[in-house]
Amino acid sequence: MLTNIFQMRNAPQNPSMRRVKLNGLPVDEKRDRISFIQAIISNLNKMGIDASLAPQDSEGDITLLSPDGKELDLVRATYDSFSPEFLASKKATQYEVREAWQNRVRTHLSENGFQKVGRKYVRVEDILNPSSDFKEAYEIQAEIIDGEPAISIDPCTRIMESLSGEDIQRAGNPDERVDVQVLPKWKSGELVGRAGFKAGDKSFEYHGESLPTPKYWKKKYDIEFVDGDEEMLDIYIPDYDMELPYPASVVFGSFSRGRSLPDDLKKDPKQRVSEAATAIDQYFDSMQFTGIEADLSKLTTAKELGYSTPSFGSSYDFDVRLGGDRKTGVNDIHKSLKRNGPYAGPVNGEYVVITPEDGREIRDGFDELASIYNQLNLGSISRCSEVGNDGIIEVGSQNSNTYANRITEVRDQLDAIDSDLIAFVVLPGHNQDVYFQARGKLFERLFGNNPVPAQAIQYKNVVKLANDDGYFIGVNTASQVYVKLGKVGSAVWILDEPADAHVPGVEPGSTCYAYHDVSRRPDKKSAATAYSATTDSYGRYIATGAQPTGGEKLTPKVFHDILNELLRKVSAFHRRQETSGEKDFHFKRLVFAKDGKIGWKEQKMMKKVIREGVPSEGKRPISEILDESGLLPDDMIIDVVSVNKSPNKRVVTRDGNGFDNVAGGNAMIYGDESGLLVSHKPERGTAKPLEITANDHVSLNRDDVPEPAAESLLKEYYNLSYLNWSSIFSQGKYALPQILTQNLGENLSAGIDVPENMAMI
What we know:
Blueprint: E1 2-3, E2 5-7, E3 16-22, H1 30-46, E4 51-53, E5 62-65, H2 69-78, E6 84-91, H3 94-111, E7 114-117, E8 120-123, H4 124-127, E9 134-145, E10 148-159, H5 165-171, E11 179-182, E12 187-198, E13 203-206, E14 209-212, H6 213-221, E15 231-237, E16 242-247, E17 251-253, H7 269-283, E18 288-289, E19 292-293, E20 300-301, H8 302-305, E21 319-321, E22 327-329, H9 333-340, E23 349-355, H10 360-375, E24 381-383, E25 392-394, H11 400-415, E26 421-427, H12 432-443, E27 454-458, H13 459-466, H14 471-486, E28 494-495, E29 511-520, E30 527-536, E31 541-548, H15 556-580, E32 589-595, H16 600-612, H17 622-628, E33 636-644, E34 651-655, E35 658-661, E36 666-670, E37 674-678, E38 690-700, H18 710-720, H19 736-749
Parallel strand pairs: 23-24, 23-25, 23-26, 26-27, 29-32, 32-33
Antiparallel strand pairs: 1-20, 1-34, 2-10, 3-5, 3-6, 4-5, 7-8, 8-9, 9-10, 11-12, 11-17, 12-15, 13-14, 15-16, 18-19, 21-22, 21-28, 29-30, 30-31, 33-38, 34-35, 36-37, 37-38
């Protein structure tokens, strides 16, 4: 296995460092002080001095890495008015080297024509070129690997859609919503309208100075292309819960939902490796670090980096269980369903179809879908003749508001149906607004009506089904319908061996997996944290849930509330399994996985909440809650894990003189806590591995159980990736609990109150 990591071959050995204490800064507030010092460090980097922010628990303000006499004199002369005090020279720790290295790479790219756009670096000349929305970009991460400065570089594409005059005009209509992205951090926002003045007319305060907009953006954000004559736009930024004026040149249209990269921009491994190596030669050939011109290596192997590369087997080695507890290979699920049916037994129900217009193809298409449902032994579904025109509810329009109104009209009729009911929503094209509006009205508890499960399907796919050209679509759709009708305990298939069977100190089959994601609400005033207590370690669906957070940040109170609710719901499922006589589930371990990286502050908060509770809110430690509850288990293991879907590291393998994707089931482990997992080999492009990290492990009210190594967690995730009930023929890269949580988050962000027993698949 090879990686896109390039190490500095002539790295400084045992570098020194000196702290600088600034005794005369013109700011007192901690936040303002740090911002001011960061600006000084940025300037020092541009002067060729390697520096970083000193740790908060140290005496100084700035760390200078391996400074020589000339550099010390330059710092003294440049910042004499701030009364710099130079502390004694010491050996630099890896932390100081890493921070200074990251600053050096960031500054070098900025000085050589790159602008950071979110996580990606794009050349400024490309940003300003309106001829294409697809900008050549790189994901670049500076880090220290095995004590050596290194760069991970991943060639990619940044979609930056130019904002049109029509978009600005639409934003003035209260019924329209124009989503945008803004520099420098590529924050999501909503275009409110024109601010009514030009960039040169407005000034902003920066470190005590009042600067006109172009100068402000240059000094604060290192963006030099803002022009005084350009228009200012008002943008609402949910992350800040504020409406702010932005120069038009830093505002771009939001990535259009449903838009994908053209095939010619999907880089295969050979092209990706070649472009990464070329970028290192082209853009980093003159970079210096600690006064040395950085000599960066060629593409490195896992072995050279000291990484282990375990393999967890391919899909051909993986077994699942379906109806009658029959075992089959994961590649034979379709055939086995026809013979044995689903694991949780047949589920019957009725359906209605909500469609822009009735017609032969609508009726024939859903008749075919019902037939496929029956052929797969999932049970039977039939059209509910008591509602609409023989189960067909004609909307008469493709407008989302018309859909919502029509559904509201028939909710009482839907509620009067005695059998289990599901509503198919026919989507005219890729209209996501129709999808969310319809689903919201079906889930709404209008005057006490029960929520109605919903399954969206595009009109073109209904036509394919009607014309005997949509069998594969029909099979996957039927599987999703089965799970939604079956609700709690649903499982089209389960794992033959529980996902936690190999985890040391854990009773096989005793784990529940809860994934977490934060989703903004469209009312602009709050966010919701979505989580799914989705499956046990065999793969049976349990429940979903959400908590209002009031912002993006996961607070101690909300985290404690989520843990409490998870424990209660999963414990109730545990008891349900015992009384139903189905496969036992003895709840003893909770894996709480967060979508994306967990920062050190959030990690510290989670550790504290689990062990100490939230005393200021009257919330007790989890161990005490377990002690005093008759419902919850007496003891528990909690593992907190982060799953980063978009690391900038890639892994490839040699194929003769070229390169190829690594097969699914292969991993690369670094250290005891983290690793990369290739859970799925794509048909096109280069596999993007998942980065999985162990963040916390605690044994509550029991003898200490060894912390699972990164390899165990990666294998556990890989096992769960064979549970995607929405894809019968080909399993994808994500674990089922994560899929359900991502879908739940999308619905929450659209303002939909999702019932707790509704699987979002």
